[in-house]
Structure formats: C-alpha cells, structure tokens
C-alpha cells in the first residue's frame, strides 16, 4: 500500500484510556485519523455512517476502525450503557462494497477492545459483507477482525489503565522493524506478548480472537 494518506482510521474510545496512543500509532503510519471519545449509541451510529461516506476512501488503500467500549461478547454498550447495545457484527456492514463503494476490494481492518460486563449488568433500560468486484471477489473478502475481551472488573481496579492489547498493538506498529512485517506476522508477536501477560497476571486475562479473509500479504508501510 502506497497511498498518502494510507487510508482513514476511525478510533472510537468509549472508555478514554487508549485514544492518544492509538492516534499516535496510526498517524505514524500515515493514516488520516478521526478520533472520537465517550460516545453514546446514537453518536457511534452517526459517526460510522458519516465516516463510511467520506470521499477520502476513493484514493486510499486501506480502512481501519478501532473500537473500545464496555459490552458483552456480541455487543458494545457505549457510554449510555444500554442493553443489549450495538451488535458488533453490524460494524462491518457500514463499510461493505454496497454501502461504501470506494472501499471495494481494499483491506478493512477492525480492532476491538471489549470490556465484558456480567450478564445482569444494566444501568439503562449480523450482516452480509459485499465487497470488491461483486462478480469475482467473495463477499466476505479483505476483512481483518481482531476482537479482544477482558473482564470489566479490570476497569474498576485500575480505571485509567490502557488496554494491554491495544498498547502492545500500538507499540508494534510504531517499532521501525516490526512494522515492516506482514500484518499477520505482527499479530503472531502480539499474541505471544498478550499470552505472556496472561501467564504473569492470572487475575487479568485478555482473550484474543482473530478472523480474517485477507487475500494478500498486507504491509502497513513500505518494506
């Protein structure tokens, strides 16, 4: 990927501890960063809709979305803490080839840190991907979906602490040597560091899930 900027990076941080480091990391990779903090459900929906309509996608090579919130394993609650919340699978739907034609056939990278609340937690009362050339490219192509969960009790113990998953991701992306690797190789290192954290910190366990339908090796910087 060689476009300048490389693409749009949307950061939605409903917790408030990770936005600055993530902004620095993706700006260093020459992304056009849109950073939003402490959004309620309506604002999240509005921002996703507006970012999907940006003309900047046309000349870009990639799209990144980072989302940090409380939630459960399938939803985020945003700042209004509504249950059941916003279904995570719907996130991809805003950037399908049908809804965002300028991202046809381009990598779309999603990084999610979800702080899992207990099932009875409540303060207030999945969709098809159409991508690329619809005749030749599978509808679920060119997506990377990295989802990390952590028990929300970690926020109660240390409300200002960054996510180890996101801070490690940012560190790897800013490392001059690591950032030259294919993105999936970077995730091998990320997994290794997170699992080492889990070994040393049994009371604070990060659970990682990585799914992707990338069709080529992806480099976020020139080799």
Automatic annotation (TrEMBL):
SMART domains found in the cross-reference section: CASc (SM00115)
Entry annotated with the keyword Amino-acid biosynthesis: no
GO CC field: cytoplasm
Single GO MF annotation: cysteine-type endopeptidase activity
UniProt KW keywords: Apoptosis
Coiled coil: none
Keyword Transport attributed: no
Superkingdom of origin organism: Eukaryota
SUPFAM superfamilies the UniProt entry points to: Caspase-like
Caspase family p20 domain segment(s): 18-113
InterPro entries: Caspase-like_dom_sf, Pept_C14_caspase, Pept_C14_p20, Pept_C14A
Record GO biological process: apoptotic process; proteolysis; regulation of programmed cell death
PANTHER family listed in its UniProt record: CASP8 AND FADD LIKE APOPTOSIS REGULATOR (PTHR48169:SF3), DED DOMAIN-CONTAINING PROTEIN (PTHR48169)
Family stated for the protein in its record: Belongs to the peptidase C14A family.
Listed name of the protein: CASP8 and FADD-like apoptosis regulator-like
Species for this entry: Crotalus adamanteus (Eastern diamondback rattlesnake)
């Amino acid at each position: 990927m060689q476009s300048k900027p490389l693409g749009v990076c949307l950061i939605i941080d409903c917790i408030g501890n990770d936005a600055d480091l993530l902004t620095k990391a993706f700006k260093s990779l020459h992304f056009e960063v849109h950073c939003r903090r402490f959004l309620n459900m309506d604002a999240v929906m509005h921002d996703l809709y507006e970012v999907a309509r940006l003309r900047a996608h046309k000349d870009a090579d990639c799209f990144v979305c980072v989302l940090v919130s409380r939630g459960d394993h399938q939803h985020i609650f945003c700042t209004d803490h509504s249950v059941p919340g916003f279904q995570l699978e719907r996130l991809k739907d805003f950037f399908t080839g049908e809804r965002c034609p300028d991202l046809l056939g381009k990598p779309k990278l999603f990084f999610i840190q979800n702080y899992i609340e207990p099932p009875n937690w409540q303060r207030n009362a999945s969709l098809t991907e159409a991508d690329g050339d619809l005749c030749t490219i599978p509808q679920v192509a060119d997506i990377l979906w990295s989802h990390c969960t952590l028990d929300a009790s970690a926020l109660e113990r240390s409300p200002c602490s960054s996510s180890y998953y996101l801070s490690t991701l940012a560190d790897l992306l800013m490392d001059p040597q690591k950032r030259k690797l294919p993105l999936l190789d970077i995730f091998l290192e990320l997994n290794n560091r997170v699992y080492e954290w889990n070994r040393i910190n049994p009371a604070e366990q990060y659970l990682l899930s990585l799914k992707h339908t990338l069709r080529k090796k992806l480099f976020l910087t020139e080799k």
